[in-house]
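SAMPLE LOG
Freezer: B-3
Tube label: C17
Construct: single chain, 86 aa
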Amino acid sequence: MKKAKIQITVVNRLGKCKCHRGHQIGDSFDYDTQRGEICPMAMHIAFPYIDILRYGGSLPANKDGKNYFCCSDVDVINVFSLEITK
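STRUCTURE (predicted):
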């Protein structure tokens, strides 16, 4: 089974502080080739979701049909979207 390609994009920031890793809204990353550029705290949260999507599973989607997760830094709270790309 071929693993799905995953795109991770910063779509919002809910906290009052800028990201300590420098991520900004609009930054986008290919999981296969750029995962080392993503904040380790965010990747810790993202990995279970990514693993489910890569191996054919599905996640409960938001009202708009997309999948989101937040980083765990309470001062920043970056919101990321996960999308399967072709």
